[in-house]
Write a structure and sequence with these properties.
Blueprint lengths: L2 H14 L5 H10 L3 E2 L10 E3 L12 H6 L4 E4 L10 E3 L3 H13 L6 E5 L4 H13 L4 E3 L9 H7 L7 E5 L7 H9 L3 E4 L7 H4 L2 H8 L1 H8 L3 E5 L3 H6 L5 E6 L5 E8 L2 E8 L5 E7 L4 H13 L4 H10 L8 E5 L2 E6 L5 H13 L5 E6 L8 H12 L6 E5 L11 E3 L2 H10 L6 E5 L16
Parallel strand pairs: 1-2, 2-3, 3-4, 5-7, 5-8, 6-7, 8-9, 9-10, 10-11, 15-19, 16-17, 16-19, 17-18
Antiparallel strand pairs: 11-12, 12-13, 14-15
Helix pairs in contact: 2-4, 4-6, 5-12, 5-13, 7-10, 12-13, 14-15
Length: 448
Amino acid sequence: MPQTNLTSFLSNLRQTTRILSIHELYDIYSSHPSIQTDTRKLKEGDIFFALKGEKFNGNAFAQQALEAGASYAVVDEHAGTTGERLIHVEDVLSTLQLLAKMHREKFSIPFIAITGSNGKTTTKELIHAVLASQFKTYTTQGNLNNHIGVPLTLLSIKSDAEFAVIEMGANHQKEIESYCKIAQPTHGIITNCGKAHLEGFGGVEGVRKGKGELYDFIRDHDGLVFAYDDYDYLHEMSRGIRKVIWYGTNNGEVCGVVKSSEPFLEVKVKKGIDVGLLRTQLVGSYNLPNVLCAATVGKYFNVPNKKISTSIETYVPSNSRSQLIEIRTNKLILDAYNANPTSMKAAIENFARMHEKNKVLILGGMMELGAGSVEEHRAIIELIGRYRWNSVVLVGGDFKAINNSYMYFETADACLEWVRKQNFHDSYFLIKGSRSIQLEKVVNGFKN
């Protein structure tokens, strides 16, 4: 392009592409307080943020978003689109996070941040249910707990909010720290620190350090944490935090124990709230700390006992998280959203304790375990061998690297075809694996 034409083009681009400060952008957001990053989910009036990933570039969809009814499109590349409703920034993701931080600073309400290796989504959902029974409460939708999900959650909070519950996931150091800078939690919960994302964290001690970044923020800002008394490492990690509310099986503001888990968890509350027995719709005794945490948060914020118990008892898990599904004469525990050595061990042992006949394991590989992955899979196979099962099926991951006598399929689709050819009846299944294995597909095999 000749220099004169190029100069003219750039001049026109500057005139038709809006370059705004973050304060000016916040003013626009205040008038259009709905953010979308996916044109397929766009609603009229949304502000479209053109995020980029390894396999997509949202800048290429800016014009489509505007034509679909977006009020504005925020971009960081020129993709053949210009206009008054196009806002150009240096980096879309950083702008989204900064906008979220600015929005967060408008509130003086409790912001409860939740992280942990296992149980954080269930704990988040239970706490939200309890608080929402008494207060206007906003929370993370689904599993939007990463560098995009946390700011999107914050930006979804409306001016009528009385509480916010923010889930934070992480697979490497400094990740939780970065989320805390945006969300600025006043209260924190670490559900547990187990063998999850070992590849990124570099071992269990790395997990504790990474998750402990939430405690670091709370400590530095004189906040409050709710912590499970039975985990000794949480006592160590919480040192220096002035305000700690404990809960557990024997010590704490709220105490309770497992009464039954056949299959649904029943919790006998011994102290803290006068509800007697909590009859949940959660599968597995490993959900005890999650239930006690929600009850403790409710008690601390003066939610009436009846509302606490009703909220916990009526919560039904979804999204392949410890769901009990009944298909004809078979029962399936579907826990296929996530798996790591800690959660896998707990699920298998819980399933083994159930007084049911014809129990079948369908287990998927565990991802992001790094150099120790094969040994962790070997330990699970050894654990399986301690109990009697009608059948054991292993799917994907590093299970293939270990010699064993169990049936193995490379993919969930192959396992699905095998299930379709069987004639299962009056059988009980535990279906658990990492998200990438997609074991939820196997459920369709029981429907045909």
